[in-house]
Specification:
Elements: H1 3-25, E1 37-40, E2 44-52, E3 76-77, E4 82-89, E5 95-101, H2 108-119, E6 127-134, H3 162-181, E7 184-194, E8 199-201, E9 211-219, E10 226-231, E11 244-245, H4 248-261, E12 264-269, E13 275-277, H5 285-302, E14 307-308, E15 312-324, H6 327-334, E16 343-344, E17 352-363, E18 366-370, E19 374-375, H7 377-381, H8 403-407, E20 413-415, E21 424-425, H9 462-476
Parallel strand pairs: 3-11, 5-6, 10-12, 18-20, 19-21
Antiparallel strand pairs: 1-15, 2-4, 2-7, 4-5, 7-9, 7-14, 8-13, 9-10, 15-17, 16-17, 17-18
Helix pairs in contact: 1-6, 2-3, 4-5
Length: about 475
């Protein structure tokens, strides 16, 4: 037994004891089932605002790059990083805010702080929903805590900088207020395009979802358009050796669209679990992300199947409990590496759950789902492995119904890493753990594929919990 095996046994014991204490002294409050909010009117109004969220480069502080291994000190800037906001209403006094930022993710605890700050603003009226989507750039500043300096068994310290987090939250309020103030009347369209062979995976998936979706708002006065784009590929191609701050391909994609069309862009990723944008230059990582950006921007500019949407929105933002089975992430929470509140849970091996949420929307009849973590594409759109291929040697019948099938809309648009960061969501028949170091280190399967993603998941039951919660939402929607 090596030191990592010993460490793993210790982590399991410590976290299970933590769970027992939580179950003894606390009761999980019942979560209210939220009714959908309906907004309608004679026509859409939208506003857009954006601002940089750069760290203080003259402070002498250490900032940690998020998204690959922990302990990666930022050494410079490849591109600036931004936060943006879109206000959308139907021409009356009620609407929603949608924020997006070039960060790897944030917990729902921090996002709820941002929501409270925005709702306290006297400059915004009638806001019925606030969503926060992350581009999930693997070259941004650590805003979760996972990527600080690690110890001997690779457990990181908190990589968040309090002043940076305060700045980020204040900028979120600023762009929200400015987007609301900038609202204009216009028409809203939905369109999409396939980017054939635009994605790649190292997990042996059967299917990919290579669809770029675009909400396009066109102001009546001829001002700049506002686009909300969605594509399911990781912004991670600068690689684990990168130490430069960057928004990766989403930044360069937005810049190209702005230069060629003038449009303002809020970008969100889709079902990105184990799904990367195609590697277009294996020798030069910087050139690779610029080529990825061009591929996606070119596709967005070519969308020609726009359909005008009627001015009606229905929104359901539903919290739910997600059982936590990940011993290592629980230990990080116990050490206050990231923000976390534990609730007692009988369905968890550890005995705890987290409270997370989903937002289900119909915008002009187009169904949109905002999910808290990184879902594998098959959990959303189907295409499960057969028993012959799956590492568990179990068939797709053990997996929950894919979310798009539950919604009854095969082309439902999904935004991942939105309103919370709850880890990877892996189908049960493709889920395996290291037998002696569960959640501490990955393992390779019978096909020699690396099952790293399970180490950053909440556990094998995550997909079922999400599918069950969504089934209930759809029934009430």
């Amino acid at each position: 037994m090596d030191i990592m095996d010993i460490a793993s046994k210790g982590i399991v014991a410590i976290t299970k004891n933590f769970g027992k204490k939580i179950c003894k002294k606390e009761t999980a409050p019942e979560i209210e089932k939220v009714a959908p909010t309906v907004i309608s009117g004679s026509g859409y109004r939208a506003g857009f605002a954006t601002d940089e969220i750069m760290p203080d480069l003259d402070s002498g502080k250490t900032y940690w790059i998020a998204g690959h291994g922990s302990g990666h000190k930022m050494e410079g800037v490849l591109s600036p990083v931004y936060i943006s906001a879109v206000w959308l209403d139907c021409g009356n006094d009620e609407g929603m805010l949608w924020l997006g930022a070039d960060i790897v993710g944030m917990t729902r605890i921090e996002i709820n702080k941002i929501r409270s700050m925005i709702m306290a603003s006297d400059k915004i009226k009638g806001c019925k929903c606030i969503n926060f989507s992350c581009t999930h750039s693997h070259s941004g500043i650590d805003t979760l805590g996972y990527w600080g300096k690690p110890n001997l068994v690779s457990i990181p310290s908190d990589g968040k900088d309090p002043e940076y987090m305060d700045m980020l939250m204040n900028k979120a309020v600023k762009v929200a207020e400015e987007a609301y103030a900038a609202r204009k009347s216009g028409k809203l369209y939905i369109g999409d395009i396939e980017i054939k062979d635009g994605l790649q995976t190292r997990r042996g998936f059967i299917d990919r979802h290579e669809i770029l979706s675009r909400f396009r708002f066109v102001p009546d006065d001829g001002a700049k358009e506002t686009w909300i784009l969605n594509f399911g590929g990781h912004p991670n191609s600068l690689g684990g050796g990168n130490r430069m701050l960057s928004g990766e391909y989403p930044y360069f994609m937005r810049e190209q669209i702005k230069a060629e069309n003038g449009a303002n862009v809020l970008f969100g990723i889709g079902a990105i679990g184990a799904m990367d944008v195609k590697e277009l230059d294996s020798e030069d990582n910087v050139n690779c992300i610029k080529l990825q950006a061009k591929m996606i921007a070119d596709a967005a500019l070519k969308i020609d199947n726009d359909k005008e949407l009627p001015a009606e929105m229905k929104i359901m933002q539903q919290p739910f409990y997600l059982p936590v089975g990940n011993y290592v992430l629980t230990l990080l929470a116990m050490r206050h590496v990231m923000s976390f509140k534990a609730y007692p849970c009988k369905e968890s091996d550890i005995g705890i759950a987290m409270m997370t949420e989903m937002t289900y929307m119909s915008i002009g009849g187009k169904k949109v789902l905002l999910l808290p973590g990184e879902s594998f594409v098959s959990t959303v759109y189907g295409g499960y492995m057969s028993a012959e291929v799956a590492p568990t040697e179990k068939g797709p019948e053990i997996n929950p119904t894919p979310l798009a099938e539950i919604a009854g809309e095969p082309d439902m648009i999904v935004f991942g890493v939105s309103n919370d960061m709850s880890g990877y969501v892996v189908p049960p028949n493709d889920f395996i753990l290291n037998p002696t170091q569960p959640y501490l280190n990955g393992v390779r399967d019978k096909n020699d594929l690396n099952h790293y993603h399970e180490t950053n998941s909440m556990g094998i039951g995550a997909q079922k919990t999400i599918a069950d919660a969504f089934t209930d939402m759809v029934a009430r929607f």
